[in-house]
Amino acid sequence: MGAIDYSIYLVTGRELLPPGKDYLQHLEESLQGGVTVVQIREKHAETAEFIRIAAKSKAICDKYNVPMLINDRVDVAVAVNAHGVHLGQDDMTVFQARSMLPRDAIIGVSCNNVDHVKRAIKDSADYVGIGAVWATQTKQLTNPVIGPRGVGAMLELLDGTTIKAVAIGGIKSSNLLRTLHGAVSPTNRALDGVAVVSEIAASPEPRQAAEKLSRLFKSFRIRHPPPIASPQGVPEEKYIVGQVAELMKVVREVNPLIHQITNTVVATQSANVTLALGGSPIMATEPREMEDLSRISNALLVNIGTMRADGKKSMSLAGCAANANRIPVVFDPVGVGATAFRKETVKDLLNMFQSSVIKGNAGELAALSDSQEVLARGVDSVGSGFKDPVGFVRALARKERCVVVLTGPVDYISDGVSVVALRNGHEILGKITGSGCVLGSSIATYCGAACAQSTKEDHGVLVHGDMFLGAIAAVLVVTIAAEIAAQRVDVRGPGSFLPAFIDELWTLEPSDVQSLARIELFP
Ligand code: 3NM
Ligand code: MG
């Protein structure tokens, strides 16, 4: 057998078989649907029964030329001439297993953390099973759930080795793209496959279940954001601003519906700003309506500003539904550094859903990324607060697999490849409440429009449309409208500024943005 295709890795679960289904028939249908590796997992069978089942399973796997591995039991693997074994952390070592198995046997190891992966590399395992990536009913977990973000750090260790990696735990067709999108290292190492039990084993239609996973897996591609490519002779900055001008028109044409879960201080203002830009706001927070709203919305904003513990449920339901429906999620971790509750909540939310854009000031993004460089309160004075804001946003965007917006006197935005610095704005924005929150709503509005108008031809991308451009557009529009409003003779202070600002958002012309934008690109 040549190189193994780990993409759709079935771990058997006889106890989950739907009533009336024969195990071997079910296995065969799974293989017909595109399962590429099978692991026989029997936690309760006596040795003789395990061998009997493994031998029968092997005959079927052989028919489809699919390798079959045995969970835990090297003796069973030897007895049925399996292709290899899968070992847990409490089973025998790779070295011990290797000494009892044929030379070309495949040996995989369950890994829950980076130390496990380091050990597996040292032991020359053939592949690692990283889990549990999501919560699961199928196995009593003894370790914390990792989440896709945690997988990336483990994959990074595998760079430069030939060791393959699959993720396991709660993987379904409904979260597969989000899982694959999130589980990529900053060096762009992605998963080689996904291991599932219940999605196939408990399905009355295993062939369709496997086909669906297989189709989604094959379609997935890591989206390498292309470097900004302006037409010959057009400076890149000018090109970007031209694209922004186009997107401003698109928002007014498509009138995107923007679902916003935001704080009670800024909700009215955020809704008004969304309307002024050409979008439609819906400010709903009840958990029971999150999934319905996700189906009709063009983007979701999650802002934790005044959240209480019960708000997390709505946010996670809405975020997961947005990922499943593949609409943009803009995440605003307001004041994340301020309290332990916020910090913990933000970590949890980042693990539950994949954001398309994360927006914050220096203190917030420092807290979110565990950087000690900027304290949560000391963000007003020098520059953006980071010594190297360009490098910081780029690295965070790579790590979080999304666009990052760092706000401050200069705003920095990165898609993980390019970075833009935007120097528009007015200090009076700091004298009204929620100017940052309003920016979050604006980003969601432009990203929603960018997604809605994209052709959606590529099925392997979590969210369509140019989120980088959406974020740039929102920052430019908000800061330029603020500049214009602040200079009006009828604006005497923050009180008269706010309605003037909303009016200027309403009347701002794409050509105003083109003439006033102060943008610098760091390719
Ligand atoms: N191992 P399902 S999680 C067998 O974390 C197994 O190592 C895990 O089942 C690990 O796809 C798991 O039904 C169960 O969630 C996966
Ligand atoms: Mg085990």
Automatic annotation (TrEMBL):
GO terms for cellular component: cytoplasm. GO terms for molecular function: ATP binding; hydroxyethylthiazole kinase activity; magnesium ion binding; thiamine-phosphate diphosphorylase activity. CDD domains: THZ_kinase (cd01170), TMP_TenI (cd00564). Pathway: Cofactor biosynthesis; thiamine diphosphate biosynthesis; 4-methyl-5-(2-phosphoethyl)-thiazole from 5-(2-hydroxyethyl)-4-methylthiazole: step 1/1; Cofactor biosynthesis; thiamine diphosphate biosynthesis; thiamine phosphate from 4-amino-2-methyl-5-diphosphomethylpyrimidine and 4-methyl-5-(2-phosphoethyl)-thiazole: step 1/1. Its cofactor is Mg(2+). Keywords: ATP-binding, Kinase, Magnesium, Metal-binding, Nucleotide-binding, Thiamine biosynthesis, Transferase. InterPro entries: Aldolase_TIM, Hyethyz_kinase, Ribokinase-like, ThiamineP_synth_sf, ThiamineP_synth_TenI, TMP_synthase. Pfam families: HK, TMP-TENI. GO terms for biological process: thiamine biosynthetic process. SUPFAM superfamilies: Ribokinase-like (SSF53613), Thiamin phosphate synthase (SSF51391). It catalyses: 2-(2-carboxy-4-methylthiazol-5-yl)ethyl phosphate + 4-amino-2-methyl-5-(diphosphooxymethyl)pyrimidine + 2 H(+) = thiamine phosphate + CO2 + diphosphate; 5-(2-hydroxyethyl)-4-methylthiazole + ATP = 4-methyl-5-(2-phosphooxyethyl)-thiazole + ADP + H(+); 2-[(2R,5Z)-2-carboxy-4-methylthiazol-5(2H)-ylidene]ethyl phosphate + 4-amino-2-methyl-5-(diphosphooxymethyl)pyrimidine + 2 H(+) = thiamine phosphate + CO2 + diphosphate; 4-methyl-5-(2-phosphooxyethyl)-thiazole + 4-amino-2-methyl-5-(diphosphooxymethyl)pyrimidine + H(+) = thiamine phosphate + diphosphate. It comes from the Eukaryota. Residues 8-200 form the Thiamine phosphate synthase/TenI domain. In the N-terminal section; belongs to the thiamine-phosphate synthase family. In the C-terminal section; belongs to the Thz kinase family. Condenses 4-methyl-5-(beta-hydroxyethyl)thiazole monophosphate (THZ-P) and 2-methyl-4-amino-5-hydroxymethyl pyrimidine pyrophosphate (HMP-PP) to form thiamine monophosphate (TMP). NCBIfam families: PRK09355.1, thiE, thiM. This is Thiamine monophosphate synthase. It comes from Lyophyllum shimeji. The lineage of its organism: Eukaryota, Fungi, Dikarya, Basidiomycota, Agaricomycotina. The gene is THI6.
